[in-house]
Input
Amino acid sequence: MNLKSNTNEILEDLSHNLPAAVFTYNVDEQGYDNIQYISDACEAIWGVPPEKVLNNAQVIWDLIHPEDIKKMTSSIQHSANNMSKWECEWRITPYNSTDTKWLRGYGTPRKGEGGVITWNSVILDVTNEHELRIAESDALKHTINVLIAALEARDPYTAGHGRSVAYIAEAIGKKLNLPAEQIEGISIGGLIHDVGKISTPAEILTKPTTLLEEEYALIKLHPITGSKFFHNVNFKWPIKEIVEQHHERLDGSGYPKGLKENDIIFEARVVAVADVLDSMASNRPYRFAPGIDKAIEILKQGSGSKFDITIVNAAIELINSGELMFKNS
Output
């Protein structure tokens, strides 16, 4: 047995014993595709035997969740155009099943004769991982709801403000075409960005007249106080940093640490803009809402110096198009 055939035999044995599908996927210059090779795990994952898939990639495509087909095609196109690593997560409904599975695939493209691009790839069933994420997300939401309820009991305005900031921040994230997971983190951060005010005396939070300097100094402690709630909590998003940095400004004029530019994470910059918008559009115990026009004026004046210009532009576009509405505007 020569070295090449021995190597092929070893690789085939390995592929059939891996807890994943190993396959070779080809796309020619006209966009026609086929699956040249797929391991036995094909049946365990998709519910169809390998022989039904070979040279008939449509069998696999037909099992992809309709909402994920565009994501899959875009990921393959991006990999082909840039000859870069292919990676994607998507859902399928296996053959003769009503269940949903989550798959994750990896592959490296190689260009062959006639411009055919080939990916030797691995696909994993990550359904259990996604179910664990959902359970963790549900636990996180419960914790957040407890914090919001505690805050609302002391200061109804602050809790309502958090929900509005989350809504605005999420809209900005979508406008900027940020990844869904990043938008989710920004929304959660916006929801609880003022959670540190739980430690602020209620009589200051609800004071119907202008705050004294020493009272305002106490309120300015809330980003640090809030971030401490999450000091030992491992989120997949930078929640602690959003809470701590949402009053920081690019020029260093913000608080609590006077951070500048790249020291302020992008997610906190989004929440900062959303915070200003809702604050200006909402009544406070000690004043009526200045209005959305005033908010836009403040953001434009600080665009590029205090606030991220890309985020400000996205927010203003949302307002001008009517995609963002404010109850007191």
Observations:
- The chain has two domains: 19-125, 129-320.
- The mean pLDDT is 89.
- The radius of gyration is 26 Å.
